[in-house]
Amino acid sequence: MEWPYIAGDYTVGNRKASFAVVTCGSHDLPERIIAKEPKLVAIAGSCETENDGIARILQNVVSNSHIRFLVVCGEKVVGHEPGQTLVALHQNGIGDDFRVIGSEGTIPILHPKYFKIATPHIVVERFKKQVEIIDLRGEKDPDKIVSVIRSFSARQVEAYPEQ
């Protein structure tokens, strides 16, 4: 399978790196982060929606077993709350109605129509096991974000076991 699997608003770095970065509403940040640390970051992109946008992120993350950390940073997207929704998703998962439990977003529903690689419940469970969330919501300084990435990279984690 070609990676990234799902099209979106992102920049690809080192496909075997352990970090993915979601910059929420900060559209200029992904390229700046990749430019500063191309070896440690697999993919960085913005996300403005709490449903389709998050479904795209989840599928690209779980389809690359090297990604073990998801940095959530950047400007808040009022109303949609993709950053808060990602954190809630990782902590609480989704209900039988595909709604992200604990999300403050307007329509935080990960409908099956958004998923190509597996059902939403399967993708969410793998996401919760595969990655650790690094919550830097609101942080827009690429130097600070990269500093945190470098600090976590010292842990030298292995790729997630393939299913």
Structure notes:
The chain is of the alpha/beta class. The protein has one domain (10-153): Rossmann fold (3-Layer(aba) Sandwich), CATH 3.40.50. Helix content is 33%, strand content 15%. The chain is built from five helices and five strands, in the order ββαβαβααβα. It has helices spanning 29-36, 52-62, 82-92, 120-130, 142-153; strands spanning 10-12, 19-22, 41-45, 69-74, 132-137. A five-stranded mixed β-sheet has the order 1-3-2-4-5, sandwiched between helices. β2, α1 and β3 form a beta-alpha-beta unit. α2 crosses α4 (120-130). The model has no long low-confidence stretch (mean pLDDT 96).
Which descriptors would you attach to this protein?
5 strands, Rossmann fold, 5-stranded mixed sheet, 33% helix, alpha/beta, 163 residues, single chain, 5 helices
Biggest beta sheet summary = 5 strands, mixed
- Biggest sheet strand order reads 1-3-2-4-5
The unreliable regions are none
- The number of E-state strands comes to 5
Task: Offer a concise description of the structure.
The chain has 163 residues and is of the alpha/beta class. The chain has helices spanning 29-36, 52-62, 82-92, 120-130, 142-153; strands spanning 10-12, 19-22, 41-45, 69-74, 132-137.
